Amino acid sequence: MKLSIDMKSGDLTSEQSKDIIVGIDLGTTNSLVAYIQNGEPQTIISSHGHNALTPSVVHFTDEGSIEVGETAKTHLISDPDKTIFSVKRLMGKSYADIEALRTSIGYEIIDSEDQELVKIKVGNTFHNPVTLSAEILKALKADAEQHLKTPVSKAVITVPAYFNDAQRQATRDAGKIAGLDVLRIVNEPTAASLAYGIGLDREHKSNIAVYDLGGGTFDISILHLEDGIFDVLATNGDTLLGGDDFDRAVIAYWTDIHNIAAEQLKSDTALNQMLRIAAEVAKISVCNGMVYNNKVREYELYLDNPTFESLISPLIEQTIDCCILALKDAEMRIDDIENIILVGGSTRVPLVSRRLEEVFGKKPDNSLHPDEVVALGAAIQADILAGNRKDILLLDVTPLSLGIETVGGLMDTIIPRNSKVPHRAGRQYTTSVDGQRNLRISVYQGERDLVANNRKLGEFILQGIPPMAAGLPKIEVHFIIDADGILTVKAKELRSDVHAAVEIRSTYGISEEEMALMLLDSIKNAGDDVQKRALLEAINEANNIILAADKFIKQNQQIFTNDVLEQLKSLNDNLKTKVSEENKDAIELAMKELNDYSSPLAHVALDINIQKALKDVSVDDGRL
Length: 624
Ligand code: ADP
Ligand code: MG
What we know:
- This protein is α+β, with helices and mostly antiparallel strands.
- It has four domains: 4-196 and 370-385, Nucleotidyltransferase, domain 5 (2-Layer Sandwich); 199-367, Nucleotidyltransferase, domain 5 (2-Layer Sandwich); 402-523, Substrate Binding Domain Of DNAk, Chain A, domain 1; 527-616, Substrate Binding Domain Of Dnak, Chain:A, Domain 2.
- It contains 14 helices and 28 strands.
- Strands 3, 4, 5, 6, 13 and 14 form a six-stranded mixed sheet that branches.
- A hairpin with a 5-residue loop joins strand 26 (475-481) and strand 27.
């Protein structure tokens, strides 16, 4: 089979068949796949239920298997520590970022020593947001394959407009693990606009407000469209406001009427689950012009639309305030906005469009299903990438990802493949050894997780970093691709202003066939790569902890009893053994055990050492 690659789209084309490219809305609450049939976008019906939407929920059964979607959702309340929801909120986030979320989540989230991503502990296994999202994507892929009766290996995936580089990269990685070649990451509001046909005509110039109210999040984005390019002018919103809050308001109303105490609801998970389901059904009923009347156990549950609207009105007003702020940030007046697009299941609440019409003075677009528009738009973007819409010009894009080598020979992608050219992206790094003076920066091109499998483009050394403790230097690495496709890589230590740069010409110095093979290779080996990467990351982290623990034991001999020191040593030795055995979950467990035991000790040691230091001061200068 002969393979070739389209330099414009970076897309693989085989002469034998033209693969289908699907569009995926990977949502916080629900996910959906769409594709193009006879030129029109269509959604895929999930195999898990009558509904096309697949709940973004992953459940680990006691037997060790994984369920996704509707079946997983039924375990949310009965088996909370093994049922992972809202994983999108954790994408690309550190433990500190999500501190506030932890109280509302039933599963266990674990801090890792470095500033890396969070982990999720289920029984004795460790997962991360990327692998969990990959489980959702795998299920969507399988559904799509069953529905379309053909293998699906290429996709466009959407993310919120405010997602940063790390969150976008995490989403790409999730796709890769699921066996998908992610041709592009598209902003959700851009996809929604495309679904409404906005942006398909290159002459068209417009300002668009995309109002997205989902299950647990609210986003407002102000976009400007010109020359076929969507610019995100401003985003605003509330990451903890959505349809779930409407349900909670209804539950609070009922429990108030029936004098059900909060503690009772907490201990009676069955009642809790029934009320949650009833509240959502009641909400949807009244939004469809009906009155809800039902009995759960001995409780009469009633809801009508006026009551519902009075319950949620303050929440809707919060979203309106966000819209006004976003307009201000975008430096726009209300009448500068030509289109208001409704996205997300919760915009089916009639009060939403009524209030938006009052505020913006025009009717919002709602001719498409609000919970489908993002997926439909992603399918259109996929179709454009597939070259099926000849009238739409694509901008030049980078055909392969560009990045640098980090500890353990891992590839850290800085500019993902299919990014628009010209392009600029950067990331901060630090040193891993005390007093490190030089840092070698090796630049690679390719999709594999280990640089050894990618193509080296060049390297340079940042020299003369002033000696500092490991982790202190702030080294910023910048990749700049100009309009001619020439890559310049710059590195700078921010504390000392030491800098260096290298220019790499001929980024496209490989044949198209070679490039096609590299891409295929990356998809074939994604599973392997991810496992290797996870193991290497665990080993790197463990080695740091082992060094720190050794140092801690040595420095605090006088503070702790022998028993404590022995226990620390034995936990540390256990971690060393697990590292040598190269078993990722065992390493993570050993790290957690050492960490759980040593954290309180570290606090004690710190207190004692501070007291000592204060005493020393008082002796030295005699002021106290
Ligand atoms: P996300 O983007 O967060 O994944 P969705 O866009 O799928 O979420 O929205 C899910 C929310 O929409 C849920 O809170 C659900 O109850 C709500 N919803 C779905 N249909 C309706 C309806 N007909 N009326 C009111 N709310 C609805
Ligand atoms: Mg959504």
